[in-house]
Amino acid sequence: MPEAIIKATNLRKTYGGVEALRGLSLEVHAGSLCGFLGRNGAGKTTTLKILLGMMRPTSGEARVFGRHVSDPVASVEIRRDAAFVGEDKPLFEDMTVRDVIRFTAAFYPRWRQDLEQHYVATFALSPAMKVKTLSRGMRTGLALLLALCRNARLLILDEPTSGLDPAMSEQVLQALVRHVASAGTTVFFSSHQIAEVEQVADRVVIIDRGRTTITAALDDLRAQYRRIHFVFDDDAPAPVFRAKGVERMYRDGRVLTVLASAGAEGIVEEGRTLRPVSVDVVPVSLKEIFLESSGVEG
Amino acid sequence: MLWYKAWLETRWRFLIGLAVLMVFACGAVLDYPAIARLNASVSAIDAPGNLGRLIREAAAAQRTYRGFIWFQWYRQNLVQTWTILAVLLGSGGLMGASPGSALFALSMPVSRTRLAGVRAATALMELLALAVIPSLMIPLLSPAVGEHYGLGETAVHSMSLFLGGSLFFSLAFLLSAVFDDFWRPMLITCAIALSQTVVGALAGLPFSEMLRVMSAESYFRAGQIPWVGLGLAVTTGLLMLSAGVAIVERRDF
């Protein structure tokens, strides 16, 4: 297993009596492109801000590159090796594109001028334009340029494609994937777009109401999650399965549905002892897994 | 580059303030012949109460060109306008022009102390320039109205204004570390500053002592620089700045 670039343990964050994080734990390993999924208000942005030292956890611990995020000195070192793109693409509004690039490059000795020129052309950025006059797409392109050119070991992106049209979203995602492939950067990105997480991520962390519900490789999720339908002659029974991997169970008339996170064969075998008239095992999409883990009934 | 960013965030407040003060300074000098003529009749006004006392004091102070400049420029126009500019430049804090600007700055490999320190230092340098540059117009323009005003006098009054008045900048900076917006620190500090420099002086309240320190009244009247008042203002200002930085270090963004 590669080293954990990000490791959060039992993070809690309370704002004015509201618990944004309620014991969140997660790990992101070196070289992975990890999607961070959760409903609005699940605690994604709070988690990312804690990792970058913009917020302090109420309790619990988070480390990035093995450094404690709550230590102000370590936090500066973390940001030296990590890049952040916020949801609203925060930048200095009064600067021109050229100035904001110069400003950012001044903090990073390993600044990639070759990439800078490449992304200026790719995102059609005009150096003399004021940041506040950029379109949403250009702004995202500039924010991504500033993140990628610093040659950081870790990219933390909060909804990188939010508000973009499908073509621009694709352009941003392709830029990310190419960068990860060539530079080996670790990427931890939050998103509401499950399809885009499926498209680019190799791992996924799903959180709900401040707690981690799933941390897994995307391929493992696809391979292991199954929905099993047992159809009976009469009303479906309410069994207690001994087999491991039963996440949820629903009864609807004659049909008993089991959502399995692993060991579907064992569950099917055990279910057959209940004498169903038919058994149907179907794969589960990431969207369904997300909805199930977020407590949203389909 | 942090200095450049801080300059970009404050430059319009600074440049507009500088332009306004330059116009005021020129106006103060060029108005002197007319005001001097009016002043001769003002001393005969026999108004009762505090207002009458203030008018008589003003007339007495302005019998000479030096007194006129001190009263009109260092005790009124400059001190009031500069104080408002000090509050404007102190307000906003790390949030700068927008919350997004703060988030972007905080994502850089720079400590919050350095970010806040550069922001404060930039504004203080601008305030020093606002205290000195327009005041230099006084000795430069005085020959145009057949008068002379010393550079030494200019230096003492400008430095007293800067050192004493930086207290209001520090208060706005401290309040900006507490509040998220630009307006609350600005309005609270403005209310306190104006009560000290304008209302306090008009009403003859004892807490208008700040105005005496900022205008270096003791230097004008007796040639004594108000070291104690300046020392207290600078020490209190530094404590407020330190408290502001400490709050910025601990708060969530």
Protein architecture, described:
Chain A has 298 residues and is an alpha/beta fold. Chain A has 2 domains: 4-220, Rossmann fold; 225-293. Chain A has 10 helices and 14 strands. Chain A has helices at residues 44-51, 72-80, 97-105, 113-122, 136-148, 166-183, 194-200, 218-224, 264-272, 286-293, and strands at residues 4-15, 18-29, 33-38, 59-64, 67-68, 82-85, 154-158, 186-191, 203-208, 211-217, 226-231, 246-252, 255-260, 278-283. Chain A has a 6-stranded mixed β-sheet, with helices on both faces. Chain A has a 4-stranded antiparallel β-sheet with strand order 2-1-4-5, covered by helices on one side. A 4-stranded antiparallel β-sheet of chain A has the order 12-13-11-14. The longest helix of chain A is centred in the middle third of the chain and has 18 residues, at 166-183. Chain A is elongated and about 75 Å long. The two termini of chain A are 35 Å apart. The model of chain A has no long low-confidence stretch (mean pLDDT 90). Chain B is mostly helical and 253 residues long. Chain B has one domain (2-250). The longest helix of chain B has 30 residues, at 112-141. Chain B is elongated and about 65 Å long. The model of chain B has no long low-confidence stretch (mean pLDDT 87). The interface between A and B is medium-sized, with 31 and 26 residues.
